[in-house]
């Protein structure tokens, strides 16, 4: 049974069958037929103010729910504007389907108005991409796109559709199956390896669990928690993995890496077994490779075989889906644990870990005269209690937030980890709020990143999205300034951001409330007021301008040689 | 040293771009590349000769195997394989060299495909280094013009081709939660 339908309607029908309820997008010339079909279609369209933010918002939607995020843009500039958001999704393995319009098939290659080689441009920005020139191929391709985006190691998939495909008619019959013979997804893990992994875990004297974004993406927090308790290993969660294990779990030892805690990095340096779960040994975690976990054997579980031994050789690799592999490891652990006996080293290891924790806890000082950035994060933490969705931009505030805000569940902490795209915070919060209308969603931005996304304040207002936008305003591009201070003799080059707009007038112009807070004594009340407001809220928090993020492992440095406190002021600072 | 990679790919628009894109993104220059249909017209066989840093080889093959359009990518550099190349060559030489040229051609198993007063057109196949020698020798007889076909290879090991089966998708309406999410 089939019926004659336009390509635009077929597309929307396929989206409905994939369970899509929301599209973040921006219309244009060649997508006119698609937007005409959307006019009376139940799928909700969120009109953003820039296509890049459509891709970020689709990520916020996906990261907070686990569902595939969908964004849409027209040909040419619309499509090229999506690119940063797609690469960002690629780096953090976020399932996103991007739909772009393309000029009519027979005009491709003629330098037609708003023509760009979207298929070529996005080849390396996506997990896979398609150019659709024949309406009959459309349904199959749309379902393939969703399958590829969400399965295996997730990622963005772009489908570039010519205008004549939207306009053309085809006999549509629902797709029942797709066939991608070359697309390999390894899920189960090798039984023998799983057994050996469990044995190694019970033999280790100083084990460390290194949990990353893969736990969040595969929804295996409960399985991780069981593993953590069976092995009783100290557990670090990466920037992408915060919330994978609750920040309040007794085994949780903060974040490792460049701005990780002293205990986390000392643990990673001194461990004899790293249990790496859904991580990729990012350079921001390992520091100088030959000084990373030099005494450790490595168990590495990942769904992507290309991650195994990419950076650090895995002594015991397991390729599989954590959701499938972790329960099997746990089962063997439960079986072997009674016979394993005491591990005398483990007790000493925990003692050592506690000493490291208390020797150099994360900096949380409070001043009477100015709001310290750490004070701001501590207050946000106090009020959100590990339960709010916190979307961060990129920079110093991101590191302080990651250090000091608790996340009791996965999918609460949303940030651009791999690509580090400034401007990510506000639009991702927008997407997360659309997906979670009843939850408190906080966007934490620097004054730099916020100004990259200001236009989306209009979207918040239009759709009544009560996102609380907290700008940690230090008047600088703080992270760049920090590096210039520490490594470039404090020659501050192009990092001063003067002329921040008045938040009362700015938010007011968009139709909601804004405020500036400068005094430490007013901070708590200001945040409480913002969080209690029923609408969107812009809170501009003036913080210590020159505060730096510590601990810090300088780029290429060894993780056991962190800089813990500010060094002596540089000569040029006088 | 050149690495030889053989790939079985879907015969689709963009498949070549995806494969070469992995090499160009890493700054590798392709020495030679051949693509042609296989017995199954929906598939193509690709042979690539490229100088890759040894420690990057495994990683690159893994990334090639991740491409949706690639059914199998194999590094043949250190495994039993036959690697051959075709060379077409025109030699312009004086009359007195003609006999010597034909003798050399015979030694290398090359065939004369055209003969004129000015010289010959020759066709030779063989392994890559042998053809380098042949070209060097022919150069000593006069002016030559060479077109090389690029390495083609066949593995002597039978490696099992593992293909993914079809996946049910899209047909059932209403089960949205299940579909748009974890698979």
What is this entry, summarized?
Chain A is an alpha/beta fold and 574 residues long.
In CATH, the topology of the largest domain in chain A is named: Rossmann fold
CATH superfamily of the largest domain in chain B, please? ACT domain
CATH class descriptor of the largest domain in chain B: Alpha Beta
What ranges of chain A have pLDDT less than 50 throughout 5 or more consecutive residues?
Answer: 570-574
Q: Write down the overall geometry of chain A.
A: globular
Major β-sheet of chain A, in short? 6 strands, parallel
The CATH homologous superfamily of the largest domain in chain A: Thiamin diphosphate (ThDP)-binding fold, Pyr/PP domains
Question: How large, in whole angstroms, is the Cα Rg of chain B?
Answer: 22 Å
Proportion of helical residues of chain B: 25-40%
State the secondary-structure class of chain A. alpha/beta
- Our estimate of the beta-strand percent of chain A is 15-25%
- In round numbers, the mean pLDDT of chain B is 90
- What is the count of β-strands of chain A? 20
DSSP helix count of chain A?
22
What is the count of DSSP helices of chain B, taking H or I runs of 4+ residues?
A: 5
Oligomeric state of the chains?
A: heterodimer
What is the radius of gyration of chain A computed over CA atoms, rounded to a whole number of angstroms? 25 Å
Strand-and-helix sequence of chain B, N→C? Answer: EHEEHEEHEEHEEEH
Main sheet specs of chain B: 5 strands, antiparallel
Question: What structural class should be given to the helix and strand makeup of chain B?
Answer: alpha+beta
């Amino acid at each position: 049974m089939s019926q004659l339908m336009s390509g635009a309607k077929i597309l929307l029908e396929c989206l409905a069958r994939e369970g899509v309820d929301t599209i973040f997008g921006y219309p244009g010339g060649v997508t006119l037929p698609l937007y005409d079909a959307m006019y009376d279609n139940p799928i909700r369209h969120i009109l953003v103010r820039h296509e890049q933010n459509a891709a970020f918002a689709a990520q916020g939607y996906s990261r907070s729910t686990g569902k595939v995020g969908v964004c849409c843009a027209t040909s040419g500039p619309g499509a090229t504007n999506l690119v940063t958001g797609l690469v960002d999704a690629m780096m953090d393995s976020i399932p996103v389907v991007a739909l772009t319009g393309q000029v009519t098939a027979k005009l491709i290659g003629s330098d037609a108005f708003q023509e760009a080689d979207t298929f070529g441009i996005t080849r390396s920005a996506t997990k896979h991409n398609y150019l659709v020139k024949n309406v009959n191929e459309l349904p199959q391709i749309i379902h393939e796109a969703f399958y590829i985006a969400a399965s295996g190691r997730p990622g963005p998939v772009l489908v570039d559709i010519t205008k004549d495909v939207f306009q053309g008619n085809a006999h549509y019959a629902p797709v029942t199956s797709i066939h991608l013979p070359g697309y390999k997804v390894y899920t189960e893990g090798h039984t023998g390896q799983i057994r050996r992994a469990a044995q190694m875990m019970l033999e280790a004297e100083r084990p460390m669990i290194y949990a990353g974004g893969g736990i969040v993406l595969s929804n295996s927090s409960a399985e991780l928690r069981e593993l953590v308790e069976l092995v009783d290993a100290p557990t670090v969660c990466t920037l992408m993995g915060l919330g994978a294990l609750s920040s309040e779990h007794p085994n949780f030892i903060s974040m490792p890496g460049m701005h990780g805690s002293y205990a986390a990095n000392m643990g990673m340096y001194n461990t004899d077994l790293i249990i790496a779960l859904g991580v990729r040994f990012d350079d921001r975690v390992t520091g100088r490779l030959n000084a990373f976990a030099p005494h450790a054997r490595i168990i590495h579980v990942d769904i992507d075989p290309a991650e195994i031994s990419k950076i650090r050789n895995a002594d015991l690799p397991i390729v599989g889906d954590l959701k499938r592999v972790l329960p099997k490891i746990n089962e063997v652990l439960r079986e072997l644990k009674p016979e394993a006996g005491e591990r005398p080293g483990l007790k000493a290891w925990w003692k050592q870990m506690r000493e490291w924790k208390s020797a150099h806890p994360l900096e949380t000082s409070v001043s009477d005269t100015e709001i310290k950035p750490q004070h701001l994060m501590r207050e946000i933490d106090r009020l959100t209690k590990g339960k709010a969705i916190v979307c961060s931009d990129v920079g110093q505030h991101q590191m302080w937030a990651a250090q000091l805000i608790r996340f009791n569940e996965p999918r609460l902490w949303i940030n651009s980890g791999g690509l580090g795209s400034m401007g990510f915070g506000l639009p991702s919060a927008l997407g997360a709020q659309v997906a979670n209308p009843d939850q408190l969603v906080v966007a934490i931005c620097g004054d730099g990143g916020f100004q990259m996304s200001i236009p989306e304040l209009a979207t918040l207002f239009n759709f009544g999205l009560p996102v609380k936008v907290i700008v940690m305003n230090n008047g600088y591009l703080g992270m760049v300034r920090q590096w210039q201070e520490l490594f470039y003799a404090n020659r501050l080059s192009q990092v001063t951001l003067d002329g921040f707009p008045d938040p009362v007038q700015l938010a007011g112009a968009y139709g909601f409330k804004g405020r500036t807070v400068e005094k430490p004594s007013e901070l708590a009340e200001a945040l409480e007021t913002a969080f209690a407001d029923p609408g969107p809220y812009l809170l501009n928090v003036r913080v210590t301008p020159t505060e730096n993020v510590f601990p810090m492992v300088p780029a290429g440095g060894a993780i056991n040689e962190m800089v813990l406190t500010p060094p002596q002021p540089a000569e040029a600072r006088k | 040293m050149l690495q030889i990679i053989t790939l079985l790919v879907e015969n689709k628009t963009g498949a070549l771009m995806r494969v070469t894109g992995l090499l160009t993104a890493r700054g590798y220059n392709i020495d030679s590349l051949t693509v042609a249909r296989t017995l199954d017209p929906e598939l193509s066989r690709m042979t690539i000769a490229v100088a890759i840093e040894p420690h990057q080889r495994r990683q690159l093959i893994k990334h090639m195997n991740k491409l949706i359009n690639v059914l199998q990518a194999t590094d043949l550099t250190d495994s039993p394989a036959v690697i051959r190349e075709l060379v077409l060559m025109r030699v312009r030489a004086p009359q007195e060299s003609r006999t010597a040229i034909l003798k050399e051609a015979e030694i290398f198993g090359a065939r004369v495909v055209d003969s004129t007063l000015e010289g010959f057109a020759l066709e030779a196949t063989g392994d890559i280094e042998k053809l380098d020698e042949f070209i060097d020798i022919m150069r000593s007889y006069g002016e030559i013009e060479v077109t090389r076909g690029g390495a083609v290879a066949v593995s002597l090991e039978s490696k099992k081709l593992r293909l993914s089966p079809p996946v049910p998708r899209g047909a059932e309406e209403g089960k949205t939660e299940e579909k748009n999410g974890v698979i």
